[in-house]
Write the C-alpha cells for this entry.
Amino acid sequence: MDSNAIKLDAQCYHCGDICLGHPIHFDEKDFCCEGCKTVYSILNKSDLCEYYDLNAAPGASQRKRYRKDKFEFLELAEVQQKLIQYKDADQTHLIFYLPQMHCSSCLWLLENIHHVNSSILSSRVNFGKKEIFISFDNSKATLRSVVETLADIGYEPHISLDQLDAKQTLGTNRTRWYKIGVAGFCLSNISMMSFSEYLIGGGTLEPELALAFKVLSIALAIPTLFYSGSEFFVSAWGGLKHRYLNIDAPVALALAMTFIRSLYEIFSGTGSGYLDSMAGIIFFMLIGRWLQDRTYQAVSFDRDFKSFFPIAVNVIKDGKSIPVTVDKLRPDDVFQIHHQEIIPVDAILSKGNALIDYSFVSGESAPVNVSKGEIVYAGGKQTDGKLELIVVKEVSQSYLTNLWNKEIDQSKPALEHNLIDTISTYFTYVVFAIGILAGGYWYWQGETTLMWNAMTTILIVACPCALLLSSNFTNGNILRIFSINKFYLRSPEVIEKMAKISHIVFDKTGTLTQHRKSKITYQGQILNREEQEHLANILSQANHPATRAICDYLEISEAHEVKNYKLTEGQGVEAWIDEYYYKLGSPAFVGKTFVNLSGSQVCISKDGEFKGVFQVSNVYRFGIFDLIQKLNHKFKLSVISGDNDSEAAVLNNFFSNKESILFHQKPQDKMDYIQHLQSNVTDKVMMIGDGLNDAGALLQSDIGIAVTDSDNTFTPASDGIIDANKLAILDKFLLFAKDGYRIIGVSFLISIIYNVIGIYFAVQGILSPFIAAILMPSSSISIVLITYGMSEWMAKYRGLKLTNTQKEPTV
Amino acid sequence: MSVMIIILIMSIAIAGGFLVAFLWSVKDGQYDDDFSPAQRAIFDDKTKIKTKTNSNI
C-alpha cells in the first residue's frame, strides 16, 4: 500500500460508487465504506443477497450512517401519534416515505424486510409514491426499532416537520379514474344506440324501440354530464367569478348547449340529439386531462427549507438529555447538534468546535469557524463533531425562515395567460359571432326554427374541444417522455414556457460541477504511507476546502500528534509530527514557483525538502462542456456562483460571454441578477441550480430547474427537477419542448379544418345527425392519434428515450 | 320487438357489470402503482419458500 497511485477502478458492490482510497475487502467483494459493508453483511446474514442479483449495485451510498440515538425522538408520544396510521392491541400500521427507492431490487428487499426483522408482520411498497406500508407486532417492536431496521438496510425513511404538522395524506386521488370509467361506459352504450339510428337514417325505427333508446340515452347522459363532466363546470364557474373566461368555459358552454338541445329534440320528437357526442367530448377530455395531470407522486416540487432540518434535537435539562421536536424549542434551551447535522434555529455556541458550512444558505463552500459565545444561524451545517448550543430564536423567527418567507412573497405573479388559453378565448368569441350572425340571418329570413337550429349546432360542432384535446394530449405525452428521461416538470404550462426561453443561468457548484467532489492530482516524489498519514493529520487541522478535500483523499487511519502547528493566513501551515518538520501551502510558502497550473494548489515540503504538489480542482459534470458549446449558439448563458473565482479560467474557455460569469454571489445577489435579466422584457430566463442558496433565484426565474444528484436528495421548490446525469442533454429537452409547440400548432390547424366543415353545415341549419356523428368523434380521435404519433416521432428524432425499458445510451 | 328491448337491457347490464368491476378495481388500488405489480410477478419466491420451511421447523 505504499503508493500514491490510488486505485480508481474498484466499484462498491453495494452502491456502485467508485471506492476512493482503499476499498474495504469483505467476502470477496469491494466496498467503498463501512456503511455499505454493514448493509451487505446484514443482508447476507438474512439470506437476502438476491437484492444484488436483481440489479447491480442497487444500494444508496452508506457513507453517512445514522448515529446511535438519532431516532430517539420516535419514542416521544406526540411524534408517534402523528406517524402511526393505526394501532390496536396487537399491531401498528405505518407508512413511510423512502426517497432511496428506485429499482426492483429496492422493491424486492423492502417487501422481504420481515426476514431482517421478524417483528415486522408485513410490508407493501407503493413504488410510484416511494412509500412503504409496514405493520409490526407491538409486543416485539417499537416505532423506533422498525425505523432503525429500515435505516440499517440503507433505507432511512424521510420524516419531516411538514409531515408532523399535518398528518400524511393517505391514498391517491382515484376520482378521475371513476369519472373516466363512468364516462366510458355511458359513451359506449349511448353510441351503440345512436349508431343504429344513424344506420337506419332516422324515422323508421319502431316507436317502442325508439322510445327505449331515447329514455336510456338520457338516463346514461345524466351521470356522464353531472358526475364525469362536473369538473368543467366547476372550473368554468370559478373562472367566471373572477371575471375571467378560462379554458373550461367554452367546454362547459358546449356541453350545456349539447345537452339542452338534445333534450329539446328528444322531447319535442324532432330528432335524437347529440348525447353521444357529448359523452365523447367528456370522455376524451378526461383522458387528455389524465395524461396531462399524471403527477409524479414521488417528486416533490414544493419542498421548503424545513424539509432539510432535523426533526428533533436533544435538549439538555438538569444534566439529562431528552429529545424534543424542533418546533418545541424555546429561547434559552440548551441543545446538541451532531456532526453533519443542520442547525435548525439561530443559537449561541456554548460548547464544541463549531465549523459551520453555510453553503446551504449562502453558497460559499468554505466552512466558517465560530467561537464560543458567537451566534450560529439556522441552516448552517456543523462539520466538526458535536456541539452544544443555546437557542436564541424559535424556528419560526430565525433568520433563514425570514429570508425564505421574503423570497416567497416576491415569487412570480399568477400564471400568465398561455397560448392555448388565449387562442381558445378568441375562438370562443369567433364562434359566438358566427352563431349570432347565422341566427340573425335566418331570423331576417323569417325562419325562426332554422335560426335556433343553426345557432345551437354551431356552438355544438365548433366546440374548442379539439383544440384543447390537442394541447392536452401533446403536453401529456411530452411530460411522460420527459419523465422517462428523468426530467420532471411541475405542470404542462412549463413546457410552453420552456419553448420561449432565451437566457439560461447556471449555478456552478453542484450544477456544472459535481457536488462535493474535487479532482485531486499529485505531482512529485512518491509519498509513502507514513508520509500520507502525516499529511492527513496536519491537513485535518486546517479548514480550507482544498485541504479538506486532500484530507478525505488521503484518509487518516492513525492519529499522530501534531506539534507546533502554525498557520500563516493565506499562505500555508507548518508543523512538527513524529520528529519531522512539514511545510504545506502555496508555492511561495515552500519556496517554489509554478506556472501553468489552475485550481487550488497545496505544495509539500518535508524537512526543507520539496516533495510535490497536490492540485485540487472542481470536477465538471460529464458532457457539460459539450452542452455549453451547443447552447452557446442559441441562448444567452450566465454562470452565477457563490464560490470564489478559482475556476474562472476554466469557465472562460467555454462560455462565450465572459461578463456573465459571476462569482461571490449571495442568494440575494443571485435573485437580483435574475431580476435584472428579466427587466429586459423579451428575455425569458431559465435558472438551473441545486442548493437552497439558489432557491430565491429559482423562484424568481421564469423557469427554475433544480438539479438532483440522486433520487434521494431533496431539492428546493422549483418548476422542474432534472437528474444530474441528464443535465448534459438539456439542449434536447429544450428542442423537444419547442417541437411540442409546433405539434400543437399543426393539430390546431387540423381541428380548425374540421370546425370549418362543421360550421359550413351548421350555419345553414342542415347539420344532419349523421354528419355530426362522423365529424365529431373522427376529429377527436384523429387529433389524439396525430399528436401522439408526432410527439413520439419527434422524441425519437431528438434522441430521447421513449420507454423505461430502453437501454440507457452508454455514458 | 320486445326481444330487442330485452337484449338491449341485457347488454347494458353486462356492460354495467364490467363498469362495476372496473370501479371496484380502482377502489382496490390496482391503478395506484403501475410499477410494483409487474415486478412482483417476476421475483423468485425462493427465499419465501426457504423461510417457510424454516419457520415450520
Summary: The two ends of chain B are 69 Å apart (CA to CA). Residues 22 and 28 of chain B are 10 Å apart (CA to CA).
